[in-house]
Amino acid sequence: MSTSELLNELLKNYISKTKVKGAAIVDHDGLIIASQVSPDIDELSIGAVTGVIEKLYDRIKSEFKLGGRFGTTTIEQEVGKLIFVNAGPKAILTTIAPSTSDIDIILPYSYIVAEKIVQILDKRKEVDVSMPEVTEEPMKFSFKVVILGDGGVGKTSLLTRFVEKTFEQEYKSTIGTNIMRIDYKLMDKITVAFSLWDLAGQQLFQKVRQMYLAGCQAALFVYDVTRPDTLYNLKNWQSELHAIAGTGVKSLMVGNKIDLVEERKVSYEEGKKVADELGLSYLETSAKTGDNVNRAFGSLAFLLVKDKITK
Ligand SMILES: Nc1nc2c(ncn2[C@@H]2O[C@H](COP(=O)(O)OP(=O)(O)OP(=O)(O)O)[C@@H](O)[C@H]2O)c(=O)[nH]1
Ligand SMILES: [Mg+2]
Question: Which CATH superfamily groups domain 3-121?
Fold first, then answer.
């Protein structure tokens, strides 16, 4: 099959698996390399997909100029929810999902497709364009995850929001180690059992902390968007993690407290730049409103099981 046939076949499989309306692969000039629409949805034509993407040309181009990393972005539009996922240096995967759909269920598949797009465009041999079958037997994985970042950035608050769905305004600094467990459902039948280790951010507890970093499979790096020093300190947190747990730990970086719009001192671009330097994916959250909190842990879950469910 030619590159274009492979890409179109991949999109068809993606659409039928996720029941989205349509999907397109766009290059850095905003040009469509491949696009497909769901045969079940007659309101959407390839022309309409092109129209939607044309409106976003400028944005796509400027994102590529910023280093070719679109990251993951979602936009609500009349046609539905648009999901953009970066697919390597050459392409962006655009998905048009029904307005009612749950993006967190679609995203893991989008990441699988994005990875396959990179492989196809790189002309690597024998790329399998089918979607992984994960529905046949339930799978359960368990992982130790550590939450790292300076004191007061919102580590405990993010965990409490994710696990207990609550938020507390009053600051009670974590003194020792707080461990929370939760079973998180990823895609249809995958359960990720998280054991989340919330460690004290204060320097005072450094010795204790080191003991707990050993043996973790993933890390969530958190900083506070109202305090730039907490962003620049993440480098030290990463070095500490690498020294104790090795460099193979799957990691994600989070800028927290985005609800504090007035007090905000670190822009999205600045946060993203540091994340790029540290080689981490980047998301912004609010433990207070719950914005992106599930998505952050969902992305981490996906990073952890990706190798096990994709070929
Ligand atoms: N407005 C706002 N406040 C937040 C948010 N997340 C946390 N906070 C507040 O920030 C303070 C610190 O939050 P914690 O979750 O205790 O911070 P921590 O990182 O666990 O701090 P240590 O345990 O000392 O390392 C608390 O007063 C929280 O209510 C957020 O997203 N928005
Ligand atoms: Mg805490």
Answer: Dynein light chain 2a, cytoplasmic (3.30.450.30)
